[in-house]
Design a protein that fits this description.
Strand 4 and strand 5 form a beta hairpin. This protein has a single domain, classed as Head domain of nucleotide exchange factor GrpE (Nucleotide Exchange Factor Grpe, Chain A, domain 2, Roll), CATH 2.30.22. It has 3 helices and 6 strands. The radius of gyration is 43 Å and the shape is elongated. It has 184 residues and is of the alpha+beta class.
Length: 184
């Protein structure tokens, strides 16, 4: 049995060395209960997963912002295109108005011109373009272009007396200001 003693002694020596190598456990302070085991730090996989989740969320938010910005820019581009076309058509519509005035007394001609004019105005309306004639309103240089001023006893100074040429708006913005005579 001497061999067993040698084995036991070697095992005891190894246990003693392991105990010396391990740091001693801290003793709890008096009056405090020992802490419950703190959860181990999240493994690096969880940190990486959280990082990728945050990246995916930022990317999704960026894409949503991009989509909204593109929708706004596309709507603005469409309005600019419609406005450009309308500016090209408005002089023809103005000439049609003059032809209507010149053709008074010839009912068939007036009726034909009026039908064409009304169809053009409806087409412009479907595209978001609305005419405005500010007779009787206060002069606004943002919406009106003063062609002349005229003294008037019937209206206060700065009031639109007559409209030479209708103005047009596209979705609320002035496409062409109305040309007017203003009371002095």
């Amino acid at each position: 049995m001497p061999e067993e003693q040698g084995d036991t002694t070697a095992t005891e020596q190894a246990s003693a060395q392991a105990a010396e190598a391990a740091p001693p456990e801290p003793e709890p302070e008096p009056g405090l209960e020992p802490d419950v085991e703190a959860p181990e730090e999240a493994p690096p996989e969880d940190d990486e997963a959280a990082k990728y989740l945050a990246l995916a969320q930022r990317t999704q938010a960026d894409f949503e912002n991009f989509r909204k910005r593109m929708a706004r820019e596309n709507a603005a581009a469409i309005d600019r295109g419609v406005g450009k076309l309308a500016k090209e058509l408005l002089p023809a519509l103005d000439h049609l108005e003059h032809a209507l005035k010149a053709a008074e007394g010839h009912e068939d001609v007036v009726k034909g011109f009026a039908l064409v004019r009304d169809e053009i105005v409806r087409a412009l309306g479907r595209a978001g373009i609305q005419p405005f004639a500010p007779t009787g309103e206060a002069f606004d240089p943002n919406e009106h272009e003063a062609m002349a001023s005229q003294p008037s006893e019937a209206a206060e100074p700065g009031t639109v007396l007559e409209v030479y040429q209708q103005g047009y708006r596209i979705n609320g913005a002035v496409l062409r200001p109305a040309r007017v005579i203003v009371a002095a």
